[in-house]
Amino acid sequence: YENPWTIPNILSMARMGLAPVLGYLIVEENFNVALGVFVLAGVTDLLDGFIARNWANQKSALGSALDPLADKILISVLYVSLTCANLIPVSLTSMIILRDVALIAAVFYVRYKTLSPPRTLSRYFNPCYATAQLKPTFISKMNTAVQLILVAASLAAPVFNYVDSVYLQTLWCITAFTTVTSAYSYYHYGRKTVQVINNK
């Protein structure tokens, strides 16, 4: 049983809150402001990881799930919005969202399996009950970084006039490759990415 209101967790929730704001700005083609808000979201990501690593009382099992979940929500909203703005192909966005939906479903399943009885809805969704800690694979961390680089490059493309650049299209291919590889790594190393917390 842990305190969910740590600074890293609050920053992760703030990042989730910025996702619809970014989506709206992109759909409205306000790319200059969207780029600034995206940088702000990136700062919250860097800060929550730094704080959790350097202050033991700020690290939590909830944070190990909340941080990647915030990333996935932000990335999904950004990719859908950028696809609507014709800056990222539909096929790539579909691939990324399918992978993330599968991972989120797996997280909910792990939560159910590791929650001690009684498995009530109130206990299931109570963030104070820590049951498992998630450990992303190395390729998954690389994939998240590549996806965010593509988002930054795509947001900047209409601002700096390189929408049809071959380098941007090459980045699409690299992102697709790391997304598929990351999905396979979770399938292959599934059990090793979850550390069940013993409740005494």
Structure description:
It is found in: Mitochondrion inner membrane. One of its GO terms (biological process) is cardiolipin biosynthetic process. The chain has a two-stranded antiparallel ribbon with strand order 1-2. 72% of the residues lie in helices and 3% in strands. The termini are close together. The longest helix has 25 residues. α2 packs antiparallel against α6, α3 packs parallel to α6 and α4 runs parallel beside α7. With 200 residues, it is mostly helical. The model has no long low-confidence stretch (mean pLDDT 84). It has a single domain, classed as Four Helix Bundle (Hemerythrin (Met), subunit A) (Up-down Bundle). The relative contact order is 0.13.
CATH class annotation: Mainly Alpha
* Spans of at least 5 consecutive residues with low confidence: none
The CATH architecture classification is Up-down Bundle
SS class: mainly alpha
- First CA to last CA: what distance? 11 Å
Mean pLDDT: 84
Strand arrangement, major sheet: 1-2
Summed up, the domain count is 1
Number of helices: 7
Shape summary: globular
Q: Major β-sheet, in short?
A: 2 strands, antiparallel
Helix content range of the residues, please?
over 70%
Could you tell me the radius of gyration in angstroms? 18 Å
Transmembrane segments: 96-112, 145-163, 169-187
GO molecular function: cardiolipin synthase (CMP-forming); CDP-diacylglycerol-glycerol-3-phosphate 3-phosphatidyltransferase activity
Membrane topology: Multi-pass membrane protein
EC number: 2.7.8.41
Put the structure in a nutshell.
This protein has 200 residues and is mostly helical.
